[in-house]
Amino acid sequence: MSERRERSLPLGEAAAGDTPVELVSEFAAVSLVVDRDGNGPRLRIEDLKTGQVGFLDPLELETLAWLPEGALHRFLDPSFHRWREERERG
Amino acid sequence: MTPTTVPADSAAWDALIEPDRVHGSLYTDPAIFDAEMERIWYRTWVYVGHESEVPQPNDYVVKSIGPQPIIMSRDKQGEIHLLLNRCTHRANLVCDAAKGNSSAFRCPYHGWTFSNTGKLLGYPFNSGYGGTEEKRNLGLGRVARVASYQGFVFGSFAEEGPTLEEHLGGATDAFDRLVELSPTGKLDISAGWLQHEAKANWKMLVENETDGYHPQFVHASIFSVAKSGIGDLYGEKSTAVSRDLGGGHTENDLRPEFRRIDEPMGWFGTTADRLPEYVEHLQAARGPERAREIMIDGAPHVMVYPNLFIAEIQLFVIQPLAVDRTVQHVTAIQYEGEPQLNRRMLQQTIGSVGPAGLLLADDTEMYERNQRGVHARTPEWLVLKRGTHRERRDGDGFTIGDATDEVPQRAIWRHYRELMEAGDGDGAVAPPAVPTANGSVR
Questions:
Q1: Which residues of chain A neighbour B125 with C-beta distances below 8 Å?
Q2: What is the value of pTM for the model shown?
């Protein structure tokens, strides 16, 4: 994409090509859109159940594409971060 | 019907199953049903799903083996797993959607999370368990053995026993014939599943699938409305045969009639000129001569014991839930890359077994009337004598009878008795005997 916008549009106003995509399974529901607020594009991920937002830049996404089988398992453990008593986090 | 208990020895089984009649209590006794689950459904190979239902890595579908909830998943490496759909924490169903794509499953009750190979990945607030060591022993339950034949995936809860091919025995030919009808040799079981519940014992459905005696009576109205020639295939003058394939597998072989009529695609109620794309593809794949033979012979009509009915254009999967409650899962068979043929298969399936279909509704009415009738105190027996005097061997050594004979029903009960008499042992059930061409059994 050659165009670079000055600000991030609300999801409902996203320009063609940056239309949010919702991916829903019985386990999770997320909205994906390319965010262009920064100096380079990145993927904006919104957890539609809680409103939590995270971002992944192209290098992080490329890394995900190369992950070996099972590499995400420790992050899928609910106790890894999200459901963990505060006193346990270090 | 007099309540009974599960027979403890061969003599006691004699009182319930004879070569040409069976006792009605076998359809109504909850104790018998429980024993059937252990000795048949949780021991032998049972059909679960088709590889094409999980085409991509991390695809999964929710299936069953009788009352057991099963997840059929394909992991990232492509291997297919059959997992028990039961959280190892407090027994909630882990997956609820009929299908999806996910590398991990998260139980909705307390968030326990499992990989799609069944490994426990973790749970919320793990300090409450004092460490993570026990995770190793808390993976999802697994069906002990998984194997497939021509893309059809079967599972067995028994750690040991006959291989799947030994179990299928004479029925392997039905799968070979089915995939040969596909120019690519592959099926695409993606049309979706209808579920029909019948207030009847599962064995009534199994017996009916290859019962060639009922179509001219039960299905007379749809044959008349549709101006179908199917009814004639199941008459006294029909050259079609009923066949015992061994291992409880049975067949209504309609090929003799189709060969006599000699009309390519006649088995499908149409003509080859109405399916030019399919005919061209099949001829290119098999050669004109073999393609013609395949289009004459058509698809098999075979009941693969205990739960898969290959019904020419449809698959039926039988799921017993209680002694008097059974679900039939039905889908249209689709051939990979053949939209012209597939559209007609889907239309015929909807017309015959869809929500307003005329064929399965007829059968289900019979199942439920049968279940009510079998409770009568007298007579106590169901008669399966038809065609006993004209049983014979075919060229492959299989026992056959005329199209309307009860050869399949007698075969089903013989095999049933073998499985039930084997008791609740260690799961080692001998593979079915396969006859040889001279009539001996190997």
A1: 79, 83-85
A2: 0.92
